[in-house]
Design a protein that fits this description.
Elements (H helix, E strand, L loop, with lengths): L4 H32 L1 H18 L1 H4 L32 H37 L1 H16 L2 H7 L1 H4 L3 H28 L2 H8 L4 H38 L9 H10 L6 H29 L9 E2 L23 E11 L5 E12 L4 E6 L5 H9 L7 E9 L2 E2 L5 H7 L4 E4 L13 H13 L3 H14 L5 H6 L7 H12 L6 E5 L7 H18 L2 E5 L3 H7 L2 E6 L2 E7 H6 L4 H10 L9 H4 L9
Parallel strand pairs: 1-5, 4-9, 4-10, 7-8, 8-9
Antiparallel strand pairs: 2-3, 2-5, 5-6, 10-11
Helix pairs in contact: 1-9, 1-12, 2-4, 2-12, 4-5, 4-8, 4-10, 5-8, 8-10, 10-11, 10-12, 11-12, 15-16, 16-18, 18-19
Adenosine-5'-triphosphate (ATP) binds next to helix 13.
């Protein structure tokens, strides 16, 4: 397929041109999402109140954190001037609690800032450049990881002179390898994306690519890790103070807990206040980080059941839908499917306008149409993996007579992978760069068939061999960036057919691959179909692929199917003007074979 680089470059530029003005609304909508999340609002409010209490401690507290009064020794809660009582040295617990907040916040900021700045910078560089640069960086980080963390901080006490800020600085360095690994893995994954190659070819500087393409992907995981790091830094600082490492002059939850411990039988509450505050602070950091990540990464296409439009109740809203001719024996039957997404003003924007489609058992149906005609949305609707904001006001999707619209996520999970499976367009983007092929296959197999880990591993190795991977055992140990696109697609096909699904939806499974590999993947799909007897719905914009492998085809335009029929018949005698236009613009007699064998899908050779 002559999908020239020029076109890619133009689209990259166009995307770039578009991305500038959309940045502000995107940020605004992330912020709005954050404000709508009760977990985010509550945890942020709790943190804000705690931090403000720390900042205003000198004005709120009656006493200094180290002011001791003999008359106040072990004063109970509610004693005059000592709202939370006093410790065994006669120091105001409330005051020490407030000042300890500042110690914790400073520790969290130093520890997280050092870890993020070192880990993020090195992760981006190591992940993007690879080779010796990555080797050198990893050597240093591996060395750091061998150091015994807390023990080192204790041993270095003479060097830090008990200053918790210096201690947290060193702790930040010890935390950096975790961030490095995270960022490196994400960067390696993004670096292999086609759009990054396109950006590189179009002359974008490395810094710009890192900032524009890599950082947005990295920011979510880093933010959630920041929250964990802050919680961890607070915990470690308190732990060290509990052990007596550091200046006794510095108020800290850890030191307060230690004093509370020794005084547990005199007044148990002395121990409870700092422990409670420590718990609330660390939990708030983590909960807020989770919400922030969700907000920044946007509404993910959750594997949720498709939502029906407001007001539509029960599954009986598609009775008037026109029946598909010949769908009585259909395994997957889509009738009059309408799908909308809200536009920025909230008005539903139609994306599918009454799609009707029937896939019979054991057949390969090609779903063709120009970009944006709704092929993928139709496939996603059938799989029940539309994003949360999608709405189906009308229509029906039946698998072997069972209505899928309106099923709960739990019910859909029982169907996906077992009865209906999916092979995606971009194999690399569909494998997690942080996990080995084996780990990902085992996880998917266990999710689909609840087998033991060892059985899933055995089955994964078998499947990899079955889809033509030469050394399955070795491949299981590899990370996605260590295998080719063709191998990645074989891995995904192997996972998809693991439970012998009755319907396989393959969304442009060969688009991201080069021509030779495309033919191999089509052959593989054909072989697997012959062996397992599954029906395949093949989403493609490539008529060559349709001619090569499909028996029937449906042509989509503007969110509806305009023509359905046997491939040979549609190729010979297209009825709809849009099909005629598509065929006229795509077919080239000099490269496309028109013999009956090929059109009937009997040949094993690919056409492009
Ligand atoms: N989350 C979404 N919100 C709003 N509109 C969407 C969303 N996802 C898809 N669309 C719109 O749905 C329409 C159909 O998209 P779809 O991905 O199904 O097209 P397609 O035929 O598969 O195209 P391609 O061959 O390029 O993948 C497009 O106009 C697209 O902009």
């Amino acid at each position: 397929m002559a999908q020239p680089e020029g076109e890619d470059l133009l689209s990259t530029e166009a995307a770039g041109a578009e991305s500038e003005p959309t940045t502000v609304p995107a940020r605004r909508s992330s912020f709005r999402r954050l404000l709508k999340d009760p977990q985010a609002v509550i945890s942020a409010a709790v943190l804000l109140i705690i931090v403000l209490l720390g900042i205003f401690a000198p004005w709120i507290a009656e006493h200094g954190p180290n002011d001791a009064a003999l008359s106040a020794v072990n004063a109970p809660v509610g004693a005059p001037d000592y709202p939370l009582g006093a410790d065994q040295n006669g120091r105001d617990i409330f005051s020490r609690l407030l000042y300890s907040i500042n110690t914790s916040v400073v520790s969290a900021l130093i520890g997280a800032a050092v870890a993020i700045s070192i880990g993020l910078t090195c992760g981006l560089i190591g992940g993007y450049f690879g080779g010796r640069i990555r080797g050198g960086i990893e050597w240093v980080f591996n060395l750091i990881m061998t150091l015994p963390g807390i023990l080192l901080l204790i041993v270095l006490m003479p060097l830090t002179k008990g200053d918790f800020r210096v201690t947290m600085l060193i702790y930040g360095v010890l935390l950096a390898p975790g961030i490095y690994r995270l960022v490196r893995n994400v960067t390696v994954g993004v670096r292999n994306e086609l759009y990054v190659d396109a950006a590189r070819v179009s002359g974008l500087s490395t810094l710009r690519i890192l900032g524009r393409h890599v950082m947005p992907v990295v920011q979510g995981p880093v933010i959630i890790s920041t929250a964990f790091l802050m919680g961890s830094a607070i915990g470690v600082q308190s732990g060290l103070a509990f052990l007596g490492v550091g200046s006794t002059e510095v108020p800290s939850f850890g030191a307060m807990i230690a004093y509370g411990f020794t005084n547990l039988y005199v007044d148990s509450l002395q121990f409870v206040w700092p422990a409670l505050m420590l718990g609330v602070m660390t939990a708030s950091f983590v909960l807020f980080g989770n919400s922030l990540r969700d907000a920044l990464e946007g509404a993910r296409p959750k594997a949720s059941s498709v939502s029906k439009s407001a007001g539509s109740k029960g599954p009986a809203r598609h009775e008037q839908a026109p029946k598909n001719p010949g769908d009585a024996d259909a395994l997957l039957s889509i009738e009059n499917l309408h799908l909308t997404y809200p536009d920025p003003s909230g008005t539903p924007k139609p994306v599918l306008n009454g799609v009707s489609l029937a896939v019979r058992p054991g057949e390969t149906m090609g779903l063709v149409g120009e970009s944006g005609s709704g092929k993928t949305q139709t496939a996603f609707a059938a799989l029940g993996v539309l994003p949360g904001e999608a709405s189906i006001p009308e229509g029906s999707i039946k698998l072997d007579g069972r209505e899928l619209i309106g099923l709960s996520e739990r019910q859909l999970r029982g169907i996906r992978g077992r009865d209906i499976a999916y092979v995606p367009q971009e194999p690399m983007s569909n494998l997690d760069p942080s996990f080995t092929i084996g780990a990902q296959m085992v996880e998917s197999l266990r999710a689909a068939s609840s087998v033991s880990r060892s059985a899933a591993r055995k089955r994964a190795i078998e499947l990899l061999g079955h889809v033509g991977i030469a050394d399955p055992e070795r491949t299981m140990r590899l990370y996605p960036h260590q295998i080719s696109g063709g191998m990645a697609q074989r891995v995904l096909i192997a996972t998809a057919v693991a439970c012998r699904p009755r319907v396989l939806i393959a969304d442009e499974p060969t688009t991201a691959l080069d021509v030779t590999i495309q033919a191999e993947i089509l052959d593989l799909l054909r072989d697997l179909q012959a062996e397992m007897g599954m029906a395949i719905l093949l989403v493609t914009h490539n008529f060559g692929v349709v001619a090569d492998i499909c028996e029937r085809m449906a042509v989509m335009q503007d969110g509806r199917v305009v023509e359905t029929g046997d491939v040979a018949e549609v190729f010979r005698n297209p009825q709809h003007p849009y099909t005629q236009k598509l065929l006229a613009s795509i077919l080239d007699e000099s490269v496309v074979r028109d013999d009956d064998r090929v059109l009937a899908g009997e040949s094993s050779e690919g056409i492009n």
